[in-house]
Amino acid sequence: MTASILSIGTAVPPARVSQSAARDVFANQPGLSRIAQRLIRAAFDASAIEHRNTVLSDLVAAANGTAPVSGDGMPAAGADATILVPSTGDRNAAYVRLAPPLFAEASAQALAEASVAPSDVTHVVTVSCTGMFAPGPDFRLVKDLGLPLTVERYHVGFMGCAAALPGLRAAARICAAQPDAVVLVAAAELCTLHIRSSEDPQQIVSASVFADGAAAAVVSARDFGGGPRLAVERFGTTLTSEGETDMVWTIGDEGFDMVLTAEVPRIIGREIRGAVDAFLADDVPDVWAVHPGGRSVLDRVEAGLALDPTALDASRAVLRRQGNMSSATILFILRELLQGGEDGERIAALAFGPGLTVESALLTRVAR
Fold first, then answer.
1. 229-366 is classed in which CATH architecture?
2. Are 317 and 336 in contact (CB under 8 A)?
3. What are the residues whose beta carbons fall under 8 Å from the beta carbon of 65, sequence distance 6 or more?
4. 243: phi > 0 → left, psi -120 to 50 → alpha, else beta; which?
5. Are 139 and 230 in contact (CB under 8 A)?
6. Who has the most CB within 10 Å: 35, 67, 124, 137?
7. pLDDT value at position 58?
8. What global pTM score does this model have?
9. Contact 53/60 with Cβ under 8 angstroms?
């Protein structure tokens, strides 16, 4: 049997901030030039984002004008709404504390919606690029969900926003080799742990789009009954001819450093047709799930593929409600299409990562 995504669960931290409130906090930081303030306002206003969730509850309190909350997140803002500059070690310590519960919440929802018991899981694939520790999130999922101690574990680390599709691809390959396998794929990203006040246009863009969230998928060729599923047809991957230095994710002394130049949307716009044509050949998808790296990325994909203006509605809706949650975002979009799509719809999924890398998947929604 063909491997399928049986369910997708999602989770976000409780602190939620409007884009306008976040904009004002960043624009009002001390020491910023007027040019930087204008860039901040322009980037936040052009993002097509309305709200984002974050583990930085103190930052949300500062944005909302309420008293800072202590003890449930990394201290990110003082009482005067000044954005603090924790060390990389402090930021990663917050990831170690705050990411596992989101991994577990999304995974528990996915298992419940697939009618799969924790004891049925044979493999775990975790995905993340915003923190690291060992034993890592794959180990913690076994402990937190009561999975069998014999579960095989894999971690897809530091591959950026595109990494959930390789995670799903690995799950499908496992199911092809072991038809009885039940693979839990879980992605969690705490992107906002690494935001900072800056006059650097690339850091400003990062601060304007990134958010926190987790999503998990149950992948198996077994039939557990229940609702619709996404049957896996095939996966693809390609590198663009340029862009190796335009989207970069490295580790600095004051958090992880994102390089995200203005060339990224333009490169995607120039090369997306070739990448997609090579992957799809004569197949024509009914629905598109495209990682919303930002509004301009979706605009360039829409133009480059000559898509109908409604083709990216699901991607734009997730961007508007949640922002860019890095690798978890594409799973939020696929959840919408799984739950609200039509039987037999063919879905083309695209995600973009450092390199520039284009990851692709072709899925079919099947009603049970």
1. 3-Layer(aba) Sandwich (3.40)
2. yes
3. none
4. left
5. no
6. 137
7. 86
8. 0.96
9. no
Helix pair 164-177, 329-340: axis angle to 10 deg: 60
Query: What's the CA gap between 270 and 203, in Å, rounded?
Result: 24
pLDDT digits (tens, 9 = 90+) for 207-248: 999 999 999 999 999 989 878 999 999 999 999 988 898 888
Whole-angstrom Cα distance, residue 304 to residue 308? 11
For residue 23, the one-letter residue type is R
What's the N-to-C CA distance of the chain in angstroms?
A: 14
Nearest to 186 by CA among 132, 138, 116: 138
Q: Give the pLDDT of residue 65.
A: 76
Residues 327-349, buried b or exposed e (16+ Cβ, 10 A)? Answer: bbbbbbbbbbbbeebeeebbbbb
Q: Give the Cα-Cα-Cα angle 13, 132, 69 (nearest 5 degrees).
A: 35
Using the Cα atoms of residue 98, residue 8, residue 310 and residue 246 in order, give the sign of their dihedral. Answer: positive
* Confidence grade of residue 70 (pLDDT, cut at 50, 70, 90): low
Q: Find tokens 């975002």 and name the residue.
A: 329
Specify burial of residue 101 (Cβ count, 10 A radius: 0-12, 13-18, 19+): middle
pLDDT tens-digit readout, 104-162:
999 999 999 999 999 999 999 999 999 999 999 999 999 999 999 999 999 999 999 99
Q: Which residues contact 74 (CB under 8 A, 6 or more apart)?
A: 55, 56, 58, 86, 90, 91, 93, 94, 98, 193
Does residue 250 contact residue 256 with C-beta atoms inside 8 Å? Answer: yes
What is the full DSSP assignment across 130-178?
Answer: S---SS-HHHHHHHHHT--TT-EEEEEES-GGGTHHHHHHHHHHHHHH-
Domain ranges of the chain: 229-366
Query: What is the rounded average pLDDT of the residues 346-357?
Result: 95
